[in-house]
Amino acid sequence: MDYKKIGETYYIRMDRDDEVIEGILNVCHRESIPSAIFSGIGGCKSAELQVFIPETGSFETERIEGMLELVSINGNVVSGDDGRLFHHTHALFTFKKDGRHNIAGGHLKSTTVLYTAEIELRPTVGGAIGRQFDPETGTGFWKFN
Q1: Alpha carbon distance 94, 114 (integer Å)
Q2: What are 19-48's pLDDT values in tens digits?
């Protein structure tokens, strides 16, 4: 992984075997970024996607593997009260399976790069967004101070 800051934006290049979410959070740690939004594209080899099931109050996880074209990744990073960073990320992948083109998307738990991923990270300017726990979903939502 390598990255460069231009203006207020960080441009991150992920390389083979890098885990994308981990890389984004590492840049935020290194650069003392408490909250940000990000987007990107790339080529990945595995991904764990989740969907929230309201009836059970839990997430269902699906793992996909192969040549996964990362059509779009969008998300945010926020800080908990203790300074710990959290991400909320959605992604869309296209891939071939049994000779057919397929699409899979949803909440992204993790994805590993096959060739490259190119991420644009935009820190919040003039303040930070925090995280508040939501007991109904067991997750966190934006918290404004």
Answers
A1: 14
A2: 999 999 999 999 999 999 999 999 999 999
